[in-house]
Amino acid sequence: MKVTVDFEECLKDSPRFRATIEDVEExxxxxxxxxxxxxxLCIGMIDAGRVYNQANKQFVNGIRDLALQSTRxxxxxxxxxxxxxxxxxxxxxxxxxxxxxxxxIRSQLQTFVKEDLRKFKDAKKQFDKVSEExxxxxxxxxxxPRNKLHExxxxxxxxxxxxxxxxxxxLDYVLQINVLQSKRRLEILKSMLAYMNANLTFFNQGHDxxxxxxxxMKQLSGQLDQLVVDSAKEKRDMEQKHxxxxxxxxxxxxxxxxxxxxxxIDTDNGIAMEGYLFKRxxxxxxxxxxxxxxxxxxxxxxxxxxxxxxxxxxxxxxxxTVKHCEDVERRFCFEVLSPSKSCMMQADSEKLRQAWxxxxxxxxxxxxxxxxxxxxxxxxxxxxxxxxxxxxxESVKLVKGxxxxxxxxxxxxxxxxxxxxxxxxxxxxxNLCITLCIECSGIHRSxxxxxxxxxxxxxxxxxxxxxxxxxxxGNDVINQIYEAHREENGGKKPQPGDPRREIEAFIRAKYVxxxxxLKPTEQEQMEKIMTLRKHxxxxxxxxxxxxxxxxxxTPKLRTASNASVASLSGQEVRRDSLFCPDELDSLFSYFxxxxxxxxxxxxxxxxxxxxDGSREMLASTPSSSSLSETDLPESEAAANQAERSPVFSxxxxxxxxxxxxxxxxxxxxxxxxxxLAHGADINWVNxxxxxxxxxxxxxxxxxxxxxxxxxxxxxCVDQQDIRGRGPLHHATILGHTGQVCLFLKRGAKxxxxxxxxxxxxxxxxxxxxxxxxxxxxxxKMNEEMRGSxxxxxxxxxxxxxxxxxxxQYKKCIQEFISLHLQES
Length: 824
Description:
About 60% of the residues lie in helices and about 5% in strands.
């Protein structure tokens, strides 16, 4: 170690020593100011760097958004995605560089200034103080008279002590100066070297990153030259086309009648003719509106905007006639007449009117010629399709004690991940009914629950209805739908171990963008819907408006007697209840937790006397199995007839919504999944069928699993039809106990009344359905128990009993569902 200040000079306290000390002190003062300035500059650089990183991050996000918007152009989309990834990595490297500067420059040098230089300042103050005391002692010793021995001795002792103390302090001060001088080099070089190494790492990482991107950049550079040529060629072609169209338009000005004819005969799409017409509204003002009309598939339809669903004017042209209209004020009018309504339209010219009339007449004749062959073809296809539907609705029998993992993986195709093919998956998407590996499950979670609901096959608990739903579809069925068009669209299925971003891009394209779903033709979709409607008609005739079918026999899980409750008149009740009398008393006793609750229940006329009241109500009802239409008032019977008639009306909507609607009633889970893949609205309302929804249709079909599938895909459990009846109403009318349990479990509002002011409970009481009455009354009293805390204003009085009661209620509901699934 090089000695800056000599220790020997320190003992002498010579002028050379004092000069050296002054130089060192001045040097350390300048060092402190320079280091302070450097630290402040470093802080400013770091703050500016973080601002730059934030702005750069936003810029990269803008590039990524542009890449997502340009997915249709593969070159731009993939290139911008690669650029955004590279720039994001560089932004991360910048962050690491600034963090290193924070540690090496700011923290390390700031510590050196605040700790080491501060100690040096403290030592300097002590040294200056001792030096001053030494000078005072020397002066005092020199001034003592010779004859005053006592003062001479005292001054000598003080001087000796002061010189000794000064010597120790001076030596320590010199030692600290020499050590600090050495540490100064160490700290400065160490911090700067760490910062320079961080810069070296930053630029090396950037070089490696752009080296990987360099082949793509070279490829794009080569493509840019060709793009310049192609762009110039396209511009020249567009200018030529613009010129020719302009010349054609100039020539057509001399023949305006012919220029307005807009034929578009397209046999592939079934469009015979299309163009703009004025349509007279059916309101009192008889206003005229310009709409885009087309004749397609033996129907006359129109739409206001391109993206609007076409409005059907005439459902079947075979039942229509067309004629000129000369008795109106406007010119060029013609009218299409059907048995139920007429439509007045106006063309722009006489030739266009004649063309439309001829097109309508030709479509009528063509529809008659094709009618016979169409019926034969649809009958053959419907018989084949119905066979597959019946087999698809078969239930897998539950095996007691079998785990969810074993049950689900036993389905063909489920032993591998649905998206990447990883073996032995441990996760599932419950609304898509597929199995997933842990990596794909994480990507599915990022899609949002509106696209995929992820659950563990080993860690989570599985309800019987959800487990059975998982076993109805599976990976093979879903991949047939969501990957039907994958190879044609150039979609590469990822493999286990592929980069996460590739797997995520594939999953988003598959389930969010639905890029690989094969959209059927209108003819195929029409045939499928008509097949499902035929299946529905057979069911409608058997069960929709007949008395509620009795529930399955009581399972052999009860030890109490299963005898039915005798009526007051001595006649037997229509069937045995799933509840024996002792169990019914026990269940209702769960709600009798306080006198206040009992008084609250007595105030409700529908639930008097707890379980005894339930049995008395059922006993006092007619012994017939249900309310038939002959027992209803004439007005209600007429309403039922009106509600029933649209079910057999002509099919006018071939969209994915209608496919989901009729597949739900036919219990065809595969067709329901296919309709959702095609973008069907889960809560679509069929205005031609009493405003019913797919969930109400699933209730009509009698399948609990179909209802569960719709509910898992966000179907509204309380959406009502035109008569104010929701799914719970319909399940109660049909006597579907399992579906009633499912809807109550999903939070259906059981107090809602229909247009006839009848709630599900009143309907069940009239039908003498003991099980559904019991369930609805338990649900009603469970709600009262929940509201009792707020009603009585006592926070903790009923918390324990309420928790116990709600658990018993949920247990009861789940047991009903399990029994229904076993019996089905």
